[in-house]
Design goal:
mainly alpha, 28 helices, 2 strands
Length: 764
Amino acid sequence: MTSPASNTGLDGLRPHSCVLCQKRKVKCDRTTPCSGCVKAQVECEYRDPVPPRRRKKKLPEAAMVARLRRYEDVIRKAGIDTSLLEEDSRGESLPIRQPISAESRLEYSSPPSFNAPISVPSGNTSKSGPGKFISREGRSLYLDNNLWKSVSNELQDAEGILPEGSTDSILGPNEHEVEDANGDFLFVGKPSRQSLTHLHPDPLQIFKLWQMFLDGVNPLTKFIHAPTLQQQILNATSDLSSISRPLEALMFAIYCAALLPMQDDEARKSFHESKSTLMARYRQAAQQALVNAGVLGTSDLMVLQAFLLFIISARLAYSPHVLWSMSGICIRIGQRIGLHRDGSKLGLSVFETEMRRRIWWRSMVTDTTIGHMAGCESFFSDTEDVKLPSNVNDSALDPDMTEPPVELAGATEMTFCLLGYEMGVWLLKNSKSKTSTFDGYWQFVNSSSVPLDQKDQLIDELETMLETRYVRYCDPSIPLHLVSRIVAGSVVTLARIRAHHPRRYQEKGEEVPQAERELLFKLCKHLVECANILFVTRKAQRFFWHIDFHFPWESIIVMLSELRHRSIGKDVAEGWVLVNTALQRQFKSLHQPRKNPLHLAVANLAIKAWSAHVAESERRRVPPVPQPEIITKFWIYTQGYKSSNPSRTTNDTAVHFTPATTPVKNKYSFPTGQRATPSDTVATASEGDTALQNNINNQSTGLSPTDWNYRTDSVNFDLDMSAITELYPTDDSPMNWVEWDDLIQQFQQQKDVDMDMDLPPSFG
């Protein structure tokens, strides 16, 4: 479509190039139609250029002098000697005579609206702490620097101090030529803003991804208000070319996150492509969308939501160190927006206050989790000021509400997230050390200097609180409630294991009392049972992507250590079944090219424990427990390690053996394929389901036998048991728990080494 001819000049030419020639960056002859469009056989279109931004009129000299004097007066009140201004003009810095008093700090408070213009009440000091909060049109900024707070009084327009927003404007034809001022060069070699319309899936697939996100990711994160966003996505799908930058960034982040709980066959069935292909495409698009939205300089809550969701979805794509840096940026953006100050004290609306709490707490928990993976401790910076999100469903929240929602005394959509937040509050409250260590806020639980009775009392209080507020209301027939119930029990059990861990005795050079060993073995069995229940429950499959990041390594190692000394009895049979089930999932992708020190160490420990069991069974002339399948895999795994490292010496901690040329069956072996009886191990599949359910703090999970997939007949008896016993004699030496802690830390830092994790995210 061409513009009216009246816009042509006296010479019959148009005053500017057509849209196609502008886009292709070629010279346009400015005829109607131009020769370039005729040659390309496309419609020639002319658009008037966007008018330049109007500059503010230059103030008269008298007004400038008056304003300068006001600035000098403010600076003097801040404790700076203005008589040294001449020295400063020669390059010398100004000394600060005295710190700025807390009384001089003011605060801006925005009215309870996302889009209302800013209001500036003077002299209002918030209980949430000093600072000024500025908000306008969905963007906000929190000033906690005294100089900025002082001079901000002189800024008549919020635009003068708010960072240039992500804006809701659409990418124009020349947007890619705009000089980057938001620091996005940190993520791309040559920053550019590009149209991403062609990378969106079709509307039907968009709604499929949205539903997958609602089912598998949103229940575990809950920092997006689904009803509001769903309407925005519905409107956006009608015209993806006019979508705002913040919403587009959030939509691409949702596409990435929605793929997390999906299996590859599901992806091929629904989208006719592999999960890895889809994930790579949408991750790159999400990176570019974040660049388009100016993520590093944003003051837009929706862009922050998109960035946080992108970080959560990228946990398998980048190394923990890269992710930790990214989560740190996320926290800094949140602080700049003022999320670390509770919205109820900033004059914000009820809805915005609640959403800001949700975003801040999820950001803090994500940063802490990734920091633990990276071996770096994160800080709950100023978190005490921000209240926990309300225990309400999304349906109880509305952007137009004027009264806070009534919290429910029971389980809601927020229950799972609140369990984690309550645990963080408990750790923060009882932690005496804020040093940056791998243990972090768990130090008071791990420390041997804190009396054991005191730690047990604190853990009892935590358990009672979680049970009273959340757990007793959970309905095991609802997948999210089932996961919440089991996670709550696991968190308390983990705290007890850390409080009673053998390392507290090793630090003092003492032996672990028998009663403590019994308690530890029972606690570790319980925690591994919890993990196994989650992993074999089909209705919880959509949440595996999150649960996989919390594998109970400590409990497995303690159990294997004890199994070296516990060779006979029902506890031994149950212990081996639990260990086998847990490790089968963790080691399902073992392969020879790459070895992980923690995997090798656990394999070594497991084979030693199994060797001790076989030797004790032979000594007592009783049949051993059927050999766990994981022992066979460990044998092959460590054999491959030895063959690929012939220079290793016997002093290494890795497993070393000479493979048997002719496998010899142990004289106590059962016929291959024969199911073990309950007396030999534990209950068979249907009986074992009930036993395991009842073992979890006697709390019924409401699972039927069909929800389980335990196998006690997955046994391989073709290994030479005598060779194992000879090569891995019973080792009664004490465990070096410091070295095991180091191995776990190294494993967290090197997780997913088979992916290209050393490269930073290429945002664009």
